[in-house]
Amino acid sequence: MSEDIKAEIDREESIIFATKFLEDILSFFGANLAVRATTDEDVIELSVPSTELNACLIGRNAETLRSLQYLVSMALCSKDAELTRVNVDVAEYKKQREDRIAEKAEVWIKKVRDTGQSYEVGLNAADRRIVHKVAQDYGDIETHSEGEGRERRIVISRVSVSE
């Protein structure tokens, strides 16, 4: 018996597998689409072009999109893939949403700077990350998250100056 039998698929094979797996799922929806794949650190970014099926593939509150992402990720896990984190975007839905959240974050930060009062808003984890990232560009602003689960909120405030 060989001691070092490894079922793991390497980084490049992980990307190829994830792309093909998602294309196969899309074909069940009747969409024969070429999925574009890139990587961002250890995350496989899968981009599905725009079609008449956008609404169906994205779903209400992007639930179908998250489900597609989960299926691809679990398939990679079952193959013991080197890369298992996946981000699926359909017709740049997530990119456009990220831009909208970033714009809102700018408004919230301006409000905090103008009033000196903290601002709290309930957001999902992905949206909170966007706000944290935008806030990093401001030396006088800090952010942190409070609460648990669906009640988790982001707090934007001025940096407290301690003497």
Walk me through the structure:
The chain is α+β, with helices and mostly antiparallel strands and 163 residues long. The longest helix has 23 residues, at 93-115. The chain is built from five helices and six strands; from the N terminus they run αββααβαβαββ. A hairpin with a 2-residue loop joins strand 1 (36-40) and strand 2 (43-48).
SSE layout:
Elements lengths: L10 H18 L7 E5 L2 E6 L5 H5 L4 H16 L6 E6 L2 H23 L3 E4 L2 H11 L5 E6 L6 E6 L5
Parallel strand pairs: 2-3
Antiparallel strand pairs: 1-2, 4-6, 5-6
Helix pairs in contact: 1-3, 4-5
Task: For the structure shown, list the relevant keywords.
about 160 residues; three-stranded mixed sheet; elongated; alpha+beta
Shape: elongated
The biggest sheet amounts to: 3 strands, mixed
Spans where pLDDT lies below 50 across 5 or more residues: none
Strand order of the largest sheet: 1-2-3
Helix count, DSSP H or I runs of 4 or more residues: 5
Q: What separation lies between the terminal Cα atoms?
A: 67 Å
Fraction in beta strands: 15-25%
Rounded to an integer, what's the Rg over CA atoms? 20 Å
The helix content is 40-55%
What would the average pLDDT be, to the nearest integer?
Answer: 91
Class from secondary-structure proportions: alpha+beta
N-to-C SSE string, H for helix and E for strand: HEEHHEHEHEE
Number of strands: 6
